[in-house]
Design a protein that fits this description.
Helix content of chain A: 25-40%
Structural class of chain A: alpha/beta
Strand order of the largest sheet of chain A: 7-8-9-10-11-12-13-14
Largest interface: C-D, 58 and 57 residues
Distance between the termini of chain A: 38 Å
Number of strands of chain A: 14
Number of domains of chain A: 2
Largest sheet of chain A: 8 strands, parallel, barrel
Number of helices of chain A: 10
Oligomer: homotetramer
Shape of chain A: elongated
């Protein structure tokens, strides 16, 4: 960490600061220039509060040199992490499409979609049983019954299941779920992250609405520092002033997260755009910039043909998209 | 709700949509124009998923006419809500300054600060015992011990205490806490909101990092629809591309929230700016545009004079500010 | 346009509004419901100020049904526009890579880079002669001398040249420039747009720092409504709270602009990321989601090897990337 | 400027960088630590491209120590700038309300409004003659005729006039205009800024839609470095994801700009909120945090009562607000 002091800082103030830093068992190196004084800190600065120091009267600016994330940092773990979910692998060259309906609605629905996405080549089945909704009056999911329907779908198709957990108190219900998803709104629900860090389940961690990549990695760090290294990062669009799309898919997060971290990175083009016909082009773009997997919403609703062109793809559209994914993957690798 | 169909929508598709809407027990009025067809919905449309309908192939645009929030809506509750915390009132002309340290650190610290803020005119004492931190390696608060120190400070000063709760499982520890605060990162932790809705405690609900006013009100609605009407809204700065300040304090939220809702609105200038010397001007601005209260960080640290000019005010600075608050209040009311 | 009135609007107020609208030669259809009244407008509503009406006391909400952009609207011009720049085509299936240095620096530099990018397959040469810089103390470009060097490079390589114009008063200097670029900061410099609309030059219009797609299309509309239909749209990253990248590349703009407009869409991954090693993955992603071309910065600086890994690619890196672009294009088309 | 190198940077690469920096006539101080090497630069680093250096392979991070703005920097000019417009002063304790209609529409309109705002206490008259509009089909202003009407209003009331200039080529028309306004969309139209820097007119410079405070100050620097020191800064709301307001008024810009610069700072609550009934609370808040003036839209339209509650205040509402401004000013100063 580098601290630049303001010009004309009184020497007593400077000494107060360096004494305080030494009291934190840090190596403190002062270099005094003509116009400014720079203090370099050596040692474990992860506990130093950069905001506090930045706001001191005598401080011009502070730069943190070593990253504060460790477990997920590629610097300390150069090889890609490969996560194995009942034999289905993701990361390190292993690619996986996770597909299924936004919400689990009925046995018939989840079974039909599960069979269809498996036939198209999906590696895992997704489906929401506990649904975070902005309004308390919106459908909150089938909950335990939804989880049970997912288990049936897994039993028949063999596809591992991925579903969102919203609360520590629901953990016992997720005992035999294969991948636990943390939604964007819970990305900084630190108690949930710590509790998931004490399980041995793979965690699919979605980037929050307006969170930076560093904050995403720090949330992964919460899980990993608690003992669970099986974290999959997920870019799902961020909030901007976009006018025609629900969110702005930040695909540059894919190569940058790969540079910063060894964890697998998947992309959710369905939530990012909110429009089914935008899902295929954004899916192919995500593949082209190197994502390790995708999470795509697929819904089969023969009686409600109207909703077919909403956010979710039909099984047919999904099957066609899977073929195009394969083609792009074959030339990118 | 108004649905505008695309030009040349086939009549069968249109009928499918109107039949589906009628199936939801809504009144459906179709007006067919030369270039477009407009469908008006009457009835309880709070359960209609506007995103779903917007994304239908045949739909040009959807406008929701009636607001989806009810309990917190001023339209259905024209008088200001007044919340009484052990005799200290907020809202409806009652103004309250909540002050105290960011974190509870020691008995000496909390006692000294509590006495000082009481003397200066604060109505409630704040102090963090459970601290949400971006990094798992940062100080997470004194937890139960911190709550105990807050109780001691209350006992001596008589000030009601306000402190953040991060998890449903901690609720039993907060049994005799006067006001439970929900932090920005948990604004859409819906399970926590529902659990707090089942208590009879006043809840101080902070606006999330990048949440809209409607989302803030919908989160208040979660608490209120679960049975607890004692919600205090708090603006604490939003995330933008600000370069010199931690967040961007959105003061226009104050008069707009007052127009939309009957709930009291407080402002936290300390977290919004992250810089102690910016707290006084932003505090006075918040008072001038009509806030019902403030949450201000005050810290007494005689041995660490360095941190005096960080985010937290000294007791002296706070006392001076309280006098200025009173002066501005006296001419605004 | 659909205007929804507030409940309990007095009939006189409603009549005032409808009379005023009729005075604008619009067809006015009023439908009165139990809880609300909806006014539909038919005719040329492009001149109706939606902000003004939205802000009326009696108005609940306004929805514009017909888009305000016409010349660039795909609805009125279903076929893709193909722009022919001295035989090099872009749009409608014609793909073009525009490459060259950020700034023209010297004859040797521009000649070397021009030859290199031509050999690698670029269709046009870019190079900044007039440079918009945040600071008045930063290098502002070689100006007229830079344009002359670009002409020399064109003469030798045959590549059409693309360069930024910042001011109407510079137009005479751009007389024989092939494509005039409007930079992000000038996207809403309406006087410049109108002047360019009176030329017959193809215009490369970059999306502003924080502008919506609609605003980008309205700026294209300024050029087209002034008589020049040769507009190329360019996505170059938008401003968010991104921490590791200069801007956030909004690739979903590509398919959405294609849906809304018939104009060609190119992507500039160099300015979007600001980091040379991020350019290849974002280039391939842009190709995969269907862009019509790319604008990529390439610099040859054998004596300053240090800057090779900055924002600009080396000729070698560019040549390798061009091959990968071709491979992805071949499977996407 | 401080450059932190990555661990394990080869010494040749490091020397290449330091040689290059020395070639720019900068003092270069290298301090080599156990884990990292830090390079300090002394001298005129305003011409060093921080983005270029940041993006070098071997560079971990760069921190600029001295600000790049000079003319407008309070560090080099501690006393407040006072701008005198025909005897009306702003800055350094002099407060001024600029008021008038959004657009000049007719002689009767501008005369009526000018008289009314003068009577209420406004110090200058505003009115748009050249209007920047997102759509080419929207009203673009009365142009030269509008300027003439402003001159008439000045003649009668004695109020100096403030109006927007959009293009260098219009400068001759503004010869006797008192204050030239640069609109948000032109904040980085550098050619316009340079041309205004060669006049001796006071310039009211509005912050761009999504520009940082530093960018605003750098644009002021363009004007000042060209020779004109009479710049008034204006905060008018920034673009965020606000749902109920047109923009988000960033009032913390007021004290922060005062800290960074000696220039006067005015606030435009009309454009910031877009809603007349939000103008009074935000005006009082702006006054309370120390702004040097306000720019408020006032319109007198007895025949179109409908628009009275749009963005613009009526003369009556404005007169009442002026009294409240005075009251708050009297207790703040």
């Amino acid at each position: 960490m580098i601290i630049v002091l303001k010009a004309n800082t009184p020497i007593e103030k400077q000494n107060q600061l360096t004494d305080w830093l030494k009291g934190m068992h840090l190596g403190v190196h002062v270099s005094t220039g003509e116009y400014q004084t720079v203090i370099g800190l050596i040692g474990d600065t992860t506990k130093v509060d950069i905001d506090l120091i930045s706001s001191l009267d005598i401080v011009e600016r502070v730069t943190r040199v070593s990253e504060t994330f460790k477990c997920c940092n590629r610097r300390f773990h150069p090889e890609d992490t490969v996560i194995d979910v009942n034999g289905v692998k993701i990361g390190g060259g292993n690619f996986c499409v996770i597909a299924g309906p936004c919400s689990v609605e009925s046995e018939e629905q989840i079974m039909t979609v599960a069979r269809a996405v498996k036939a198209a080549g999906a590696g895992m089945l997704r489906g929401g049983a506990f649904k975070p909704r902005t309004s308390p009056y919106d459908f909150q999911g089938l909950k335990a019954e939804g989880l049970e329907l997912l288990r049936q779908a897994r039993k028949e198709t063999g596809l591992p299941i991925v579903t969102e957990i919203m609360s520590v108190s629901d953990l016992p219900l997720f005992d035999d779920i294969d991948v636990l998803q943390v939604g964007a709104r819970n990305m900084q629900n630190f108690d949930l992250l710590k509790a998931l860090g004490q399980t041995d389940k793979p965690i699919l961690l979605k980037r929050g609405l307006a969170n930076t990549l560093k904050e995403l990695l720090m949330s992964a760090e919460y899980i990993m520092a608690s003992g669970n290294e099986k974290v999959i990062l997920c870019e799902r669009g961020i909030r901007t002033y976009s006018d025609y799309m629900r969110n702005t898919l930040d695909l540059s997060a894919v190569p940058m997260l790969h540079e910063l971290s060894h964890l697998p990175v998947v992309v959710d083009p369905s939530h990012a755009t909110g429009i089914a016909r935008m899902v295929p082009p954004m899916t192919l773009a995500a593949v082209a910039c190197g994502c390790d997997g995708l999470e795509i919403e697929v819904h089969n609703n023969p009686t409600h043909a109207l909703s077919d062109n909403a956010q979710q793809l039909t099984p047919d559209e999904f099957a066609k998209l899977c073929k195009r994914i394969e083609v792009v993957r074959s030339v990118i690798a």
